[in-house]
Specification:
about 200 residues; 6 strands; about 30% helix; about 20% strand
Length: about 200
């Protein structure tokens, strides 16, 4: 009997040793790392297109120039009468040089009224700078006498002026004593598909 008790106590001790070993193993193991949260892609920022559509207004062009750092002052504004080709004209100055922004009813009305030809240079009675875009005419400089080539300061003012207008209207055509480069290219022309050939006529029954 004494030997039997020894065997029972040995079996209980062995079982307790196995249980303790299992508990220690369970406590020592670490839980698997959780998966990293998925990266959310940033929302793309959509840049609004600043280009205006025809008909543009003289006020839109003037407001774009006003936010610049040019020495701009306003004299007055006038409206065209019923049926007149001009809707509105803003008379301003940049450092005591006339700046006239004229809004026509359409680009075609403007070209017909001015007989606009960008290949011809300024002539007697024209300002040193004239720019046409859509239905808008911008004239900069005096219109008395024969126009002369402006100095470097006036040229810099003309370039600053067009840099403010250029993002709004295109393409910009000009008749200037010293041409001012423009940055915005006109939109690429899309080719229209060729017309479909007519289907052959079927024979009468």
């Amino acid at each position: 009997m004494r030997g039997s008790n020894h065997r029972v106590r040995g079996a209980l001790a062995f079982a307790m040793l196995i249980a303790l070993s299992s508990t220690a193993a369970a406590c020592g193991s670490s839980a698997p790392p959780s998966a990293a949260p998925p990266t959310v892609a940033p929302t793309p920022v959509i840049t609004p297109d600043p280009h205006l559509t025809e008909p543009a207004t003289a006020d839109q062009i003037f407001n774009a120039i006003r936010v610049g750092k040019l020495p701009l002052s306003v004299n007055n504004a006038s409206a065209g009468g019923p049926g007149a080709p001009i809707i509105k004209q803003i008379n301003a100055q940049i450092a005591n040089w006339p700046l006239i922004i004229t809004e026509y009813r359409s680009s075609q009305v403007l070209r017909d009224a001015l007989k606009w030809d960008p290949t011809a240079g300024p002539k007697q009675g024209d300002p040193p700078y004239s720019w046409v875009a859509m239905n808008i005419l911008i004239a900069f400089g005096p219109v008395t006498g024969k126009p002369t080539t402006p100095d470097a300061e006036r040229q810099a003012q003309a370039e600053a002026l067009i840099s403010l207008v250029d993002p709004l209207v295109w393409p910009i055509e000009q008749k200037s004593m010293a041409p001012v480069p423009t940055k915005t290219a006109p939109p690429a022309a899309t080719e229209s598909p060729p017309p479909a050939s007519p289907a052959p006529a079927s024979a009468a029954p």
